[in-house]
Amino acid sequence: MSDLRRQILSQAKTVVVKVGTRLLTHEEGGFAPEQLQALVDNLGQILSNHKVVLVSSGAVGTGMGVLGFATKPKILAEKQACAAVGQIRLMHAYDEAFAAKGIPVAQILLSGEDLRSPERFKNIRATVEALHAHGVLPIVNENDTVATAEIKVGDNDKLSADVCHFLGADLLIILSDIDGLFTDNPKINPEAALIPVVQKVTAEIEALAGGTGSVASTGGMRTKVLAAKQVTRGGSACVIANGFKVSLSDILEGAAHGTLFLPAEKRMGAKKRWIAFVSKPAGKLLCDEGAIKAVVERRTSLLPMGIRKLEGKFSVGQVVDICTLEGAAVARGVAAYGAEELGAILGHKSGEITELLGHEGPEEAVHRDNLFVL
Q: Which of 131, 148, 304, 321 could form a disulfide with 345 if both were Cys (CB 3.0 to 4.6 A apart)?
């Protein structure tokens, strides 16, 4: 397994590094500049040989110290105030620390809407590629100052997975204050053992993840494991490791640090990753058993004939869930018709589409090239 680990990690060229709040703030809250400098030194060791995107938490935690909060505020406006105060200080600290090494940085603030739009999703990738071409390190964070529940990505573990998807990264490294995934909570059970390699994120693996982390952070091990599940299904590897203890260069050389989540054998393109993991479905197509079997088992396109009912208002090009008649989602894809026109042709053969609509249209309701089986 050590040879496999070395092979996978040493070949990674494009890397997303996600840094947890605890690595940038004191345990009781408040910005910790010496910890940020240690992180910058760590990152500096790999930037000459790898294309890196840094997803940095810490804005809210940094702002908490300035505004005098001992714990993360629960009121949205106060949380966003902490983010507004903390983000500028955090980026200033990054800018100064990296400038001392001759490395320019760029700030990219994103919301869920930015990622759920296919045009913006592609544009973000183009922007990051342009920054890399000019030797700039992109630093990504969620735009917490304006984000609401409807447009939030969720947390920075999820955000790091989304960045991995649009970038088509080889590897996601999630750094926090714990050594990796354990058989139990190591803070409670001294007998808990580190799991060095996870072949596949199963329900049993998800069950090993506990609750939230420090007083300033949003996520816990569960959000990290779910991020690992997404990126590995897309064909990228993932490592969860302790940012206080490990060297990024050692990880990339295959050293046995943290927990390595192995990538799926088949690597997905950015378009399929967006459909599967980033998009937000605008509706549901409830299908008969034959259509479900064709889509799931034979990986065929979904034809209007197999659809029995629609839910939601969606347009051409929006993502919809393909569901059983009971409503269980089995696949997700891009609608070739809007809800109104699809409602007029559902249950009918493809040869009847022109007559029913009064114009020609695609034979498929969802083409297999734009479809992902969940």
A: 304
